[in-house]
Write a structure and sequence with these properties.
Elements: H1 2-16, H2 29-37, E1 41-54, E2 57-70, E3 73-80, E4 84-88, E5 92-97, E6 102-106, H3 111-124, H4 128-134, E7 135-142, E8 145-152, H5 155-158, E9 161-169, E10 176-183, E11 188-199, H6 204-207
Antiparallel strand pairs: 1-2, 1-11, 2-3, 3-4, 4-5, 5-6, 7-8, 8-9, 9-10, 10-11
Length: 211
């Protein structure tokens, strides 16, 4: 009988003293944008998995490196398998290879990369209004994650991008952890972010990417 009472008491403790990390959250789309935008500069590590169809077979290309997202644009500093740096601003993309060769492309000529840039920039600027203007937005919270699903309204962007799915932590600081971009061809690009850090301004070293 005593063992049963002890077991019953333990069960009650588990019910009424659930750790906050497992408690149900009611974070909203606007709150996620607000909290993320409170950090002007976000940087960390990324892994990219791009699905492709080659000669009728499904395959994937993997890469990894470091990223920076700020109001000036996005930096993809790829370390593996081949070193390169892609800087995407609102107006252009500049790619620098390990050899030092640089190529410049107007952002408007590459809907996929400009779409990623516009989406992430709007999110990290906390521009919920702009996201809703450019995309049909659905938002949900499941357990400890928030999920955002975006379908582009712009016909030109929709020719290249079918949808963008974003996922992050539903507890502060609401880190963005994954971005899955589905192209109109149904090929996908998955970004997984880790070790995110937030600062109020770019360092001198980070500023060099945008000069």
């Amino acid at each position: 009988m005593l063992k049963n009472k002890v077991f019953f008491c333990l069960c009650l403790m588990l019910v009424f003293f659930v750790p906050s990390s497992f408690a149900e959250t009611s974070v909203t789309f606007d709150e996620v944008c607000k909290y993320i935008s409170a950090k002007p500069v976000t940087y960390g590590n990324f892994k990219q998995v791009k699905s492709l169809m080659l000669r009728g077979k499904s395959t994937s290309l993997n890469s990894e490196g470091k990223f920076i997202i700020c109001n000036k644009g996005i930096v993809w500093d790829t370390k593996k398998p081949i070193s390169s740096v892609m800087v995407v601003s609102e107006t252009k993309m500049v790619q620098t290879l390990a050899s030092g060769k640089t190529s410049v492309m107007e952002a408007s000529s590459n809907a996929v990369y400009s779409g990623i840039s516009a989406t992430l920039s709007s999110l990290f600027k906390g521009d919920a209004t702009k996201l809703k203007e450019n995309f049909d937005v659905s938002f949900s919270v499941e357990k400890e994650s928030w999920k955002m699903f975006l379908i582009p309204k712009d016909e030109n962007l929709a020719l290249a991008i079918k949808s963008v799915s974003l996922e992050g932590k539903a507890i502060e600081p609401f880190d963005l952890e994954k971005v899955l971009l589905t192209e109109s061809s149904d090929q996908t690009i998955l970004y997984v972010f880790s070790d995110q850090k937030y600062t109020g301004a770019l360092t001198d070293e980070q500023e060099k990417y945008f000069k």
